[in-house]
């Protein structure tokens, strides 16, 4: 066992000595196409719950803001092995960067009348529940 390890170490040392001169590698090109689909960057949610508590007329506000990022960047990467660098070359007229902010808001009114509770979603009733997109 020890003899085999010594022979392997000797063979490795001999191989390194034989190749110890400078080795130069040609740049290599390869397809490079990063895609990021609807990546959520930030997400903020707020819920007031029904206020005032235990009242016959209450209101609740829920709001959320989130932003999404979509990237599509086709092209090539040129790998320069000697300098340890990568140069990214995009395809002309290709690619997409799409950034959007979406705000969701819900306002609910709750009325208690003769022991019966009634809830109305104000945004749904007035605006059809469509989110605001910027």
Walkthrough of the structure:
With 134 residues, the chain is an alpha+beta fold. It has one domain (25-133). 17% of the residues lie in helices and 54% in strands. The protein contains 2 helices and 8 strands; from the N terminus they run H-E-E-E-E-E-E-E-H-E. The strands form 2 sheets. Strands 2, 3, 6, 7 and 8 form a 5-stranded antiparallel β-sheet that branches. Strand 6 and strand 7 (116-121) form a beta hairpin. 0% of the residues are buried.
Brief account:
The protein is α+β, with helices and mostly antiparallel strands and 134 residues long.
Cα end-to-end separation: 70 Å
Q: Give me the count of strands.
A: 8
Structural class computed from helices and strand pairing: alpha+beta
Report the principal-axis shape: rod-shaped
Order of helices and strands: HEEEEEEEHE
Oligomer: single chain
**What share of the residues does DSSP label as strand, in percent?**
over 45%
Q: Percent helix among the residues?
A: 10-25%
Count of spatially separate domains: 1
- Major sheet details: 5 strands, antiparallel
Tally of DSSP helical segments: 2
Write out key terms for the chains shown:
2 helices; 5-stranded antiparallel sheet; alpha+beta; disordered N terminus; 134 residues; rod-shaped
Note the topology.
Blueprint: H1 2-18, E1 28-32, E2 35-47, E3 57-72, E4 75-80, E5 85-90, E6 96-113, E7 116-121, H2 122-127, E8 132-133
Antiparallel strand pairs: 1-4, 2-3, 3-6, 4-5, 6-7, 6-8
